[in-house]
Amino acid sequence: MDKFVVRGGNPLVGTVRISGAKNAALPAMAAALLTEEPVILENVPQVRDIETERKLLAAMGAEVELGYGRAQHRTTICCRNLENPVASYDLVKTMRASTLVLGPLLARMKHARVSLPGGCAIGARPIDLHLKGLERLGAHISQEHGYIEARTERLRGARVVFERITVTGTEDLMMAAALAEGESVLENCAREPEVADLAALLNKMGARIEGAGTHTIRVRGVDQLHGARHRIIPDRIEAGTFIVAGALTGGDLLVSGCDPHHLGALLQKLEECGVQVQTGPESVRIIGDGPLLAADVLTEEYPGFPTDMQAQFVALATQAEGTSVVTENIFENRFMHAQELVRMGANIKIEGTRAVVRGKTALSGAAVLASDLRASASLVLAALVADGETIIDRVYHIDRGYERIEEKLRGVGAQIRRIGELLPRRVATPLAAG
Ligand code: EPZ
């Protein structure tokens, strides 16, 4: 299994360019299931989860072409011949977002068989709200042998009020309602930028969706959708991770190709920590000169402080003067990084849903274990300021959602290298897709 070897101490200086958003590209790829015509996605990040989604769609009979060379961030998906509307356990267990195929498959094929995702490192993460919503649109849902069986003659528009805000739940229902008969009103929806980006793609495909990005989304169903070309939004969590890296290492870092509007809560919190932040139309400059100050954080749904930045913020708080209380409100088990940071010398106490971080403490390099995507990012950040060498094991977690993070970090002065083989860069002549 791949490892990262990081030698701490270098401030990050220079420019790092952000890739497209994993959490926008995944639902966009699933949306291609809604039409027979090709959907072309630009700015798709080259990360393992995209590769898993490609396999998932290909197993159903879709033609999925991942671009090469200059087009390596372009993906063309054609779902004309979907013989096998099944999302197998083997793939779903590696990526929960696979369940996003349920709504589109049901809406277009009138039948879907999707494995239940099972447990996850950061929490139980059930999909009951997806299922309840689809039942309100008239789906017949049963469960057997670990799989959801969903059937319908045709989905019918309905009012769906989510009991709690769910990002992929909102996306799943929005896609299902796009081909339903009549109008659906979805309430208490997620307002994440990735939801609005999916609605933008669906409307380009001929859907009639209003209100995405707010708590109430209206979808007037249509009989069929057509192909489209769409550019995926930048990854605000990748951008946030580099922004925190710049602040933590006391560097002068320009994070380019991002959307500062999507980073409001994080940037405001960093200013509270004494970090200088300058924003441009598509960039954020971080000047980390001077001591970091402690600050409390509550993770919330968008536009609140993102749970996907919680672990990275905990790493920063270990180097801030004073006590920071970080409260995780979204997932019930998302402090796996804390004990690994304590192994490096951090002072962190977990009290239920709160991490009490006392800083500043000197961190020293150690062998640590990544447990999930964002926890592994937090360990990389801590290693950048630790004394000596840190060896991070199981970095396949980080490859799921960060495109070439070690190359991007080296590009701005970090001492980091990978032990093991890298996800192959698509530069050579294309292999048979699908
Ligand atoms: C999305 O997951 C993201 N994944 C997650 O990013 C992110 O952490 C999360 O939203 C919250 O922002 C993708 O977009 C692919 P939720 P999702 O449904 O949709 C509970 C990353 O690091 N819930 O909004 O699965 C659930 O257990 C990943 O890139 C139910 O109870 O999250 C959680 O406590 C990790 N029943 C809360 O709601 C349901 O049916 C919010 O989950 C659905 C959710």
Please describe what this structure looks like.
- The strands form 6 sheets. Strands 18, 19, 20, 21 and 22 form a 5-stranded mixed β-sheet that branches. A 4-stranded mixed β-sheet has the order 23-24-1-25.
- Helices cover 30% and strands 25% of the residues.
- With 434 residues, it is α/β, with parallel strands linked by helices.
- The C terminus is likely disordered.
- Strand 23, helix 12 and strand 24 form a beta-alpha-beta unit.
- The site of ligand EPZ has 26 residues, from helix 1, helix 5, helix 6 and helix 12.
Structure summary:
With 434 residues, the protein is α/β, with parallel strands linked by helices. The chain is built from 14 helices and 25 strands.
- Main sheet summary: 5 strands, mixed
Which small-molecule ligands are present, each listed once? ligand EPZ
Average pLDDT reading? 95
Please bin the fraction of helical residues.
25-40%
Low-confidence stretches: 427-434
* Rg, Å, rounded: 21 Å
Shape: globular
